[in-house]
Design brief:
Blueprint (H helix, E strand, L loop, with lengths): L1 H14 L6 H11 L3 H20 L9 H16 L4 H29 L6 H14 L21 H11 L7 H14 L1 H21 L5 H7 L1 H13 L5 H27 L7 H15 L16 H15 L5 E3 L7 E5 L14 E5 L23 E3 L4 E7 L18 E7 L4 E7 L11 E2 L4 E4 L11 E6 L8 E2 L1 E9 L6 E6 L6 E4 L4 H6 L6 E9 L6 E9 L5 E5 L4 E7 L2 E8 L4 H10 L1 E3 L6 E4 L10 H10 L7 E9 L4 E12 L2 E12 L3 E9 L2 E12 L8 E4 L17
Parallel strand pairs: 1-12
Antiparallel strand pairs: 2-3, 2-14, 3-10, 4-9, 5-6, 5-8, 6-7, 7-10, 10-11, 12-13, 12-14, 15-16, 15-26, 16-17, 17-18, 18-19, 19-20, 21-22, 22-23, 23-24, 24-25, 25-26, 26-27
């Protein structure tokens, strides 16, 4: 418990710079003690915040958000006043109030528009404590704004480091240098953003002011850096457009600093981080209200730019677009696309993300003379739920239109609205009268019968309308989505299996049904352990290695090796997909992910593409250096997979051709994976740079849990030594 509390305390220091690392936090803690008065007051505020959040059992106390705001209150008071009994009381009261205010603001901002609280509680409380301290005449002002003798480098560099040190109320070049090294160590891209933000912010600041006080930029320049870091790398996915947005955001921050400093100084209040907080919140609110989803893209969740970039890159490959929602086909059999995204008829902004389905035979959607609704092939056919969710609205009392007629007063006709677990909504419209078989409040799963295709609302002929929208109101702006695991039949070409499909008008599509044996044997339940016999380059003799399925507190499934390296995975929409590789180098896990990282669970899949992270290649030092230089945010491998059924050996043979181009270098690798209908992942092989690694399954097991007995089944040579916590192979 003590170790955990110390870790949370250390992380609170690093969280101020969005770094979230106990090691970095410990270094920053030491930096604040370059001035013991400041360091002690800050530590006191952090400890009080930690105790209060624990005593009152506030949610998410381990993420440090309550503590770092209390820490900042302590640092600010320690920076301006010599510590005494009165200052200690002020720190304690201020820290306690900060925790309660943080809880209130955090909940309110999240409910408002999923906004972060940032250092807003600290700004409010520090302003209050500053006003209170002005009433106490015996306090001694402690700090001189900038010590001119503290120069370490040339003046512009010193000013940069002094401003960065001011983030922790320690305006000294040494403090800023140490903080900058912490940023570089964690993320080179964040370090670059800090420099860009400061340089451009100083330029705009100089344009807007006439003979500004030298101390003003020193004490407020960190606002430029934090704004650039937040907008360019933490809350927004990195890219060229995001960088241009950073310049705009930093300009707003400079404008706020210049406008605020005169007003606040009248009351003896410092500017602090208010410009940074206001700019970031304004930009995030504005970004969430956009109709289109072009760059810059908001990150699904705040994180380091390298992590956000990799998630977005993989999402574009696997989902067709960042933040696109995966849906299954909402019908049985083959249907045509009547109107696609940005369709000419009704699919225009802000409702451009939508698909209309109907059925044609020999180029016609009906038989006979189409004088009756029953003449249309799709009329009355089952409509299925395309996702997991809860039905929140239904309506099916409108009569179906006579062919050729439309009901312009009820555009959507009869409909079902499903609330997804992600917070978005799926609308299925133009359903047949009295056909809905679910009621409001019901949970639905993919493939569940929910209604029948009709011709109600603004619908001249029977068809099914599908869209994802942001809000529950009818007519809300739509959100990008894609269909997962489908067979796509082009009018003028052969059929193909697609992991991700956003069909065009005229395409014919159908669901790629899961193969029951394949899906069952590749299923990875919590506690499943796969033991492999690993041999290959750099491994003196075969060793036994283990992979085990675990679940995090947030419900994420992860495949974890005995070296603590791990990767998240999902089994849904007809695909087993791995992502988010974390931890130390591990050749077994990387071989597994490269060979099986995106595995369709249908026998219809004979060929598909993916782009796993380049970090899965077993690169040497010089190759890693080239990758870091040319692709600082990372990149993907161009992977082509093929799979065929070996009837003689009764196995699926899944092969992969992988290539990665860096500069003038082109690196290639080959993988082979033997998928056994009875044993699952039977064998895995990787060939790269004249090296070869091979892993053979020797035992399958399941860890015991309450009410669930453990078991294991041997499947080969289990006499090899077990190696725990060791990285085998050349990396």
């Amino acid at each position: 418990m003590k170790i955990q509390a110390i870790s949370v305390l250390a992380r609170s220091y690093s969280t101020i710079l969005f770094l979230d690392s106990p090691i970095v936090g410990s270094i920053i803690l030491g930096v604040t003690f370059l001035n013991p008065n400041i360091g002690f007051c800050g530590l006191l505020g952090a400890i009080v915040g930690l105790i209060v959040s624990h005593v009152f059992s506030f949610p998410n106390e381990k993420n440090g958000v309550y503590i770092f705001n209390s820490l900042l209150v302590g640092l600010s008071l320690g920076a301006f006043y010599q510590i005494n009994a009165y200052v200690v009381v002020l720190i304690v009261l201020g820290a306690i109030f900060t925790v309660f205010l943080t809880v209130a603001l955090q909940d309110g901002l999240w409910r408002l528009d999923r906004l972060p609280v940032l250092s807003l509680p600290f700004i409010v409380v520090s302003g209050l404590t500053a006003l209170v301290a002005q009433k106490y005449s015996t306090l001694n002002n402690f700090i001189d704004y900038v010590d001119a003798s503290a120069g370490m480098f040339i003046l512009p560099v010193d000013n940069f480091f002094i401003s960065l040190g001011s983030t922790f109320f320690t305006p000294h070049p040494l403090a800023g240098l140490l903080l900058f090294l912490c940023i570089v160590w964690t993320s080179r891209y964040l370090a670059l953003l800090a420099v860009i933000g400061y340089v451009f912010g100083q330029f705009i600041f100089t344009l807007l002011t006439d003979n500004p006080p030298p101390s003003l930029l020193a004490w407020t320049g960190f606002n430029f850096m934090l704004t650039a870091i937040a907008i360019g790398g933490i809350f927004v996915i990195p890219g060229y457009v995001a960088t241009l947005t950073v310049l705009l955001a930093v300009s707003f921050t400079a404008l706020l600093i210049v406008s605020m400093q005169g007003l606040l100084f009248v009351y003896g209040l410092p500017v602090l981080a208010l410009p940074f907080v206001m700019t970031v919140l304004i930009f995030l609110i504005a970004f969430r209200k956009r109709v289109g989803l072009s760059q810059p893209w908001l990150a699904p969740e705040p994180g380091l730019p390298e992590v956000n970039y990799e998630k977005a890159r993989l999402a574009r490959v696997r989902n067709g677009e960042v933040n696109s929602v995966a849906l299954l086909v909402p019908f049985m059999g083959q249907w045509n696309i009547y109107q696609g995204f940005n369709g000419a008829h009704t699919h225009q902004a802000p409702w451009q993300h939508a698909l209309d389905f109907y059925i044609t035979e020999d180029g016609r959607s009906f038989k006979n003379e189409a004088s009756q609704l029953k003449d249309f092939y799709c009329f009355g056919l089952p409509v299925l739920s395309p996702a997991h969710g809860q039905v929140i609205r239904t309506f099916d009392k409108l009569p179906d239109n006579t062919p050729g007629e439309v009901d312009v007063n009820n555009n959507w006709g009869n409909f079902i609205l499903i609330h997804l677990d992600t917070g978005l909504y799926v609308l299925l419209a133009h359903l047949s009268q009295n056909s809905i078989v679910v009621k409001e409040g019901d949970r639905v799963t993919p493939g569940k019968l929910i209604a029948a295709c009709g011709n109600s609302g603004r619908s001249p002929q029977p068809h099914l309308h599908l869209q994802v929208q942001r809000d529950p109101e009818l007519g809300s702006p739509t959100h990008p989505f894609h269909l997962a695991s489908v067979m796509r039949h082009h009018p003028d070409s052969a059929s193909e299996y697609m992991v991700v499909c956003r069909p065009d008008e005229g395409d014919r599509i159908e669901s790629a049904a899961d193969d029951e044996l394949l899906a069952t044997q590749l299923h990875l339940p919590v506690g499943r352990q796969l033991s492999f016999l690993l041999e290959g380059s750099g491994i003196e003799k075969p060793v036994r290695r283990d992979l085990q399925v675990e679940i995090t507190l947030l419900g994420q499934f992860r495949l974890t090796s005995d070296t603590e390296a791990s990767a998240a995975f999902e089994e849904n929409n007809g695909v087993l997909a791995f992502y988010d590789r974390k931890g130390p180098a591990d050749i077994l896990l990387d071989i597994f992910l490269l060979a099986n990282g995106l595995t369709p669970l249908t026998e219809s899949a004979h060929q598909w593409r993916d782009s796993p992270s380049a970090k899965l290649f077993p690169l040497g030092f010089s190759q890693k250096l080239l990758l870091a230089i040319f692709k600082p945010l990372g990149c993907g491998i161009d992977s082509l997979y093929q799979r065929s059924w070996d009837a003689e050996n009764r196995i699926w043979a899944q092969s992969g051709q992988h290539q990665l181009g860096i500069g003038t270098n082109l690196w290639r690798a080959e993988t082979e994976s033997v998928l056994d209908p009875e044993k699952g992942f039977r064998e895995i092989t990787l060939r790269f740079n004249n090296n070869r690694w091979h892993a053979k399954l020797v035992e399958i097991g399941l860890a015991s849990d309450r009410g669930i007995p453990g078991w294991n089944e041997q499947d080969g040579d289990v006499s090899a030594p077990v190696v725990k916590g060791k990285n085998e192979g050349a990396r």
